[in-house]
Design goal:
There is one protein chain. The protein has one helix and 32 strands. The chain starts with a strand and ends in a 10-residue tail after the last strand. Strands 16, 17, 18, 19, 20, 22, 23, 25, 26 and 31 form a ten-stranded antiparallel β-sheet that branches. By secondary structure, it is mainly β. It folds into two domains: about 80 residues, Sandwich (Immunoglobulin-like), CATH 2.60.40; about 230 residues, Golgi alpha-mannosidase II, domain 4 (Beta-galactosidase, Chain A, domain 5), CATH 2.70.98.
């Protein structure tokens, strides 16, 4: 059972781990209320036991407030592949990501892979007296080789683990069939002190301004390098094509005509402000522990603030999913 509890429509992929008790058989598939086949992909579950637990990925469309029943049925169905995968890259017909080559493709246009930068940060936890963070010096991550995890037919993914400073990293890059974005799911085990973690995307030839999501709407801003608050998304204009970034859990950014930097984490000592000196005996840096980030990179002439608001709302308000076995015959 799926319910869209939002006042906005949902049209995208969802993931669910049904309890089957026996794993998944090749003759099982999904049907909607009218008996129409819903394409699905088997993913690794969160559980370490892969024999009895599986995760399903499938597309769903739900009107505001709509409840739908999707059934698991015995039926041989072939799902046409919408993604291709090899050991170091995953792609659709228009989008691809290759971490080892430091490249992503958006609408067949080549961009550099967004990267993580660790920067020294001597500001207090309110950032008093500054309107931007420094560009250097930067500590770069050390990454292991990417591992191919999912290889279609609906989604392809590569996972990399690494380290930056004293913090460990897990980056999962995804592409989806029929979706106009590349997705990064980043997990950071943050252990820094008086350092700042930025996700930087080199975009030479950016226009002088962009449109940022802000509470209640959007705002055009100059690309002048100032650190400013962000709500959900930003719309950029490159020399070749409009580009956008959407994230439900990033709240600050700085942009110049050459690059975008999303602020992920800080670690000033809490709580004090310059010019006072913090007491070192019990000083505790902020934001320590595990943090998950969900970031999507878009490109296309059709990108508008209204479209990005709709996409961001679906990230915030994914459907509620629950197993429901009432009325089923025992088999």
């Amino acid at each position: 059972m799926l319910r869209n509890a939002s006042d906005l429509p949902y049209d995208g992929y969802v993931e669910h781990e049904p309890w089957l008790g026996w794993g998944w058989h090749t003759d099982l598939h999904l049907e909607d209320e009218d008996g129409a086949v819903i394409p699905a992909q088997i993913m690794q579950s969160e559980a370490a036991n892969r024999q009895h637990f599986i995760r399903l990925l499938f597309p769903i469309t739900l009107a505001p407030g709509e409840i739908r029943a999707i059934r698991i049925v015995r039926k041989q169905v072939q799902v046409l592949p919408g993604v291709s995968a090899r050991l170091s890259a995953v792609s659709t017909n228009l989008f691809s990501v290759a971490p080892d080559a430091n490249v992503i493709m958006l609408w067949e246009r080549k961009f550099s892979l967004p990267r993580l930068d660790l920067i020294e940060d001597d500001t207090d936890n309110w950032s008093h007296g500054v309107d931007r963070f420094p560009d250097a010096p930067v500590i770069s991550p050390i990454w292991d080789a990417p591992t191919l995890i999912d290889y279609g037919p609906l989604m392809g993914s590569l996972v990399q683990t690494g380290r930056i400073g004293d913090s460990t990293l897990r980056a999962e890059w995804r592409v989806y069939a029929d979706q106009p974005f590349i997705e990064l799911r980043l997990r950071v085990y943050w252990r820094a002190t008086k350092q700042l973690l930025k996700l930087s995307w080199e975009l030479p030839g950016l226009r002088n301004s962009r449109i940022d999501g802000i509470p209640g709407g959007s705002l055009r801003r100059e690309n002048d390098g100032r650190e400013v608050p962000l709500r959900d998304w930003m719309l950029l204009r490159t020399m070749t094509i409009p580009a956008a970034i959407i994230s439900s859990n990033i709240f600050a950014v700085d942009v110049t005509p050459f690059r975008v930097r999303l602020t992920l984490l800080r670690s000033p000592l809490q709580t004090y402000h310059i010019p006072f000196t913090p007491a070192p005996e019990r000083a505790t840096p902020t934001d320590q522990g595990v943090h998950d980030f969900h970031i999507r990179f878009y490109a296309g002439e059709e990108l508008t603030p209204e479209y990005l608001d709709q996409q961001a709302a679906m990230l915030h308000r994914s459907p509620i999913i629950a197993d429901w076995t009432k009325g089923m015959e025992r088999q």
